Amino acid sequence: MSARRLLALVIGLGLAAPAVPARAADKPLKVFVLAGQSNMEGHGFVAAEPKRNDGKGSLEYVAKAPASADKFKHLLTKDGKWAVRDDVRIHYLDRKGKLTAGFGVKEDRIGPELGFGWVVGDAFEEPVLLVKLAWGGKSLAKDFRPPSAGGEVGPYYKEVIDRTKAVLKDLNKEFPEFGDRGYELAGFGWHQGWNDRVNQAFNDEYEKNMAHFIRDVRKDLGAKDLPFVIAETGMTGPDEKHPRALSLMKAQAAVAEHKEFKGNVAFVKTQHLWRAEADSPTKQGYHWNSNAETYYLIGEAMGRAMVKLCAKPPAK
């Protein structure tokens, strides 16, 4: 019996109403796919280790530092442990569970999934599942190449489609706590671009390939007009001058301006979220200097864009 029907029965019988969970049990699960290469994997360090620039730029550092603690206080419990979302699950290749810090490329890192999951988890009444599919060093032109782009279909395009379908087919096995409530494939988030950014030929065809990718993903997952968010490949910051880097970011932005994608594809700027080496755990510019604050804020921005795309248009 659904929570809504139970409440109606209780009221009809004149009994005291029990606490009804805010997340109605009869609504389908909201599923979001998060895909890309190493920056979707996530290289932001969780722990503030002194050997890494005195912990600066780690998730622990920004969650506790006076200047940023208020922004990130929701990530910590009262006893100082990392908060765990009961209403948001994540399935990331060989790992799965309730969303918390530690679902980056390794269990000591985070990626955009954390910020994204907190935003969409707060926005929807239904529980949320994030299906994260990311591998380092992969290009859109070759590795993720979509079928309609022509040439050989990228093996990691196939992985994205096949693994998404496999998780959704076996939801009862993967997450038995969801029962038979069903699911809605609600959106797709994309953070990728380095391997195309460093290759001129790949760079030149990025806009075209990205448009094909969106169309093909929607077709192959059976989700027409599936909301799609593209996060800018801006990991070298606002002072970037390299022509290929600038053209790739321009191509990513241009896709969202295609007439067919108006209102169902969003581009999220990220260059302003870059943090300097002096404020970060490492000097890996291609991995956002391993700055957890950056990764969290990218995910948060993607989540906000996704929520906006998912909002129902106002009634006429």
Structure description:
The protein has a single domain (28-310), classed as Rossmann fold. With 316 residues, it is an alpha/beta fold. Helix 5 (113-123) packs parallel to helix 12 and helix 10 packs parallel to helix 11 (243-255). The chain starts with a helix and ends in a 6-residue tail after the last helix. Helix content is 35%, strand content 16%. Helix 11 (243-255) links the parallel strand 8 (228-231) and strand 9. It has 12 helices and 9 strands. The chain is globular. A 7-stranded mixed beta sheet has the order 4-3-6-1-7-8-9, with helices on both faces. Strands 2-5 form a two-stranded antiparallel ribbon. The chain has helices at residues 3-12, 38-41, 59-64, 69-72, 113-123, 155-169, 171-174, 194-197, 200-204, 206-220, 243-255, 292-310, and strands at 29-36, 44-45, 85-92, 95-99, 109-110, 128-134, 183-191, 228-231, 265-268.
TL;DR?
The chain has helices spanning 3-12, 38-41, 59-64, 69-72, 113-123, 155-169, 171-174, 194-197, 200-204, 206-220, 243-255, 292-310; strands spanning 29-36, 44-45, 85-92, 95-99, 109-110, 128-134, 183-191, 228-231, 265-268. It has one domain: SGNH hydrolase (Rossmann fold). Helices cover 35% and strands 16% of the residues.
